[in-house]
Write a structure and sequence with these properties.
Shape: elongated
Distance between the termini: 14 Å
Largest sheet: none
Order of helices and strands: HHHHHH
Number of helices: 6
């Protein structure tokens, strides 16, 4: 993999954590949703750490926090929808006779939701990329390369 592709993936991964606000929306280790204040506090803490590592100005940190919080708050309601869809899938599977049409409708609904989540995260990523300089994005990519789940 050439440097350009690696750095692009790293940038997406690094800023993705910032915009991966869905992780904040999911709650702590899958133990229920965080309230909006907790979510904002965790995002601000993450942005401060990222800001130090990439030498972000206070203004950049503020913009990044706004981007991440906006994405997190947009994505949080989708968590309840996803939980409900999983419950529906289990109920459909457990029925005496599986309704294949209902299963397909649920699959389509889940894919639409996944697309909406993906679009929102992508928008946050590109907004965050506009805030950081190429050198800062490179540092963010290097930081992301150290995360176990991306390696």
């Amino acid at each position: 993999m050439n440097f350009s592709r690696r750095s692009t993936l790293g940038i997406l991964g690094g800023i993705g954590a910032l915009a991966s606000a869905s992780a904040f929306a999911r709650g702590r280790h899958g133990h229920g949703a965080m309230d909006p204040a907790q979510m904002d506090e965790r995002i601000e803490r993450f942005i401060k750490h990222l800001g130090v590592e990439v030498d972000a100005t206070p203004e950049q940190q503020q913009k990044l926090a706004e981007i991440a919080k906006g994405a997190a708050h947009d994505l949080a309601p989708m968590r309840a929808e996803a939980i409900e869809m999983r419950k529906q899938a289990v109920a459909l599977f457990a029925a005496p006779k599986v309704d294949k049409n209902a299963v397909e409708q649920l699959r389509v609904k889940r894919m639409q939701q996944a697309d909406a989540v993906s679009k929102r995260i992508t928008r946050a990523l590109t907004d965050a990329a506009d805030v950081l300089s190429p050198e800062q994005r490179k540092k963010a990519a290097e930081r992301a390369g150290r995360w176990r789940h991306l390696g």
